[in-house]
Amino acid sequence: MGIKNSQQIIIKITCVIVAFGLWLYVSNLENTRINRKIKNVKVELVNMDAVTQAKLAEVSEGDYTITISVEGQTSEVNAVSSSDFKVVADMGTYALKKGDNLIPVEIKAQPEKVKVLATGDMAVKVVLDDLTEKTVPVELEMEGVPKSGYATLQPEIKPSEVTVKGAAKYISRVVKAVAKGSVKNADKDVNFALPLVAVDSADKPVEHVIVTKNFADIVVPVKKIKTVGINVKVKGNLPTNGTYTIAYANPEKIDIAGAEEITSKIQVLDTEPIDLSTFTESATVEVKLVVPKNVRVIGSSEQVKVRLDLSPKLTERTLSLNVAYKNADSFSVTPAANKVEVKVSGEDLIIKALNQDSFECYLDFSGASEGKNTYTVVVKPKDPAVKLILTTPDKIEVNLTKK
Prior knowledge:
The protein is mostly beta strands. It has five domains: 1-30; 35-130, RNA Polymerase Alpha Subunit, Chain A, domain 2 (Beta Complex); 131-220, RNA Polymerase Alpha Subunit, Chain A, domain 2 (Beta Complex), CATH 2.170.120.40; 224-311, RNA Polymerase Alpha Subunit, Chain A, domain 2 (Beta Complex), CATH 2.170.120; 314-402, Beta Complex (RNA Polymerase Alpha Subunit, Chain A, domain 2). It has six helices and 33 strands. Strands 1, 2, 3, 4, 5, 6, 7, 10, 11, 13 and 14 form an eleven-stranded mixed sheet that branches. The longest helix has 29 residues, at 2-30.
């Protein structure tokens, strides 16, 4: 029994000694001083008015960060994070220029139980560009469609233009300021107060610029749709003095929208006048519609295709023709008449140009014999477009004698 108690006492004393040794080791470890680099400590730029006063603007993108070396007891150093520091770079302290600027930083706040090592050479690179501005148009990007049977008209946007300011690098990319609003299922005018965003030619937002007016007041008129006809207007005369017909206008009808007091008076939309003097043959042309103010053409362009079919002017004319002879070499010919009058018809320009050479006009003595006989006058227009109506006389008495 005594031996057993002695063994237990020895074990307890050993445990106490081991525990004490471990305590001494841990205490020594925690009190050891170490160095550590704290990365990605954010730097705040202050006194940015100095940049504006120098007519410059910041170009750098993303956060400014530095790495800070600290020293202290192990437990304290290991507990430090980048958010425990407040670091600033004073833009009003140094002469600024376009391009790269190395701005020294100052630590304004830090953990109390650690020491910051060698801060004198810490700085951030701030890239500056010329401060510039320009005026750009304001546009509405509409989302959705109105209720069936309704359509939107040209929105009223105030202001219609805004000024954007910033670094020349960014301002050069800005082409307009855009507001986004929905007209989904609208059946009456929609009013918006929408934020403006500067965008480039691809409609992508341009960051790091200032839009001098944050919001635009916009009214989108939403009106009922009405279907109306097309009235083709013409002016002048055809150079051929012919006639024309309007074969079709495509489309024959068109949808419009506008204030009811305006559209209620519209049954057709006129085209701009087609100048007939420019046509010498049938043709299909595109013609603009005359659209009244505050009226919108829905679902198509403000043009229609018009087909003009031209018909030449037909006219009649009487000509006097000399009569020639065929197969008369063995005869002396004594005719009762050596001229005839012919009446012809055809296109005005062709008929006006006719003369003796435009016809074959003759008496044919094939198989003829001596004496008096009546022969039929043969008249043949050389142009098949000329129609022979009448020959006067159509027969001539001729006395033939042998040579």
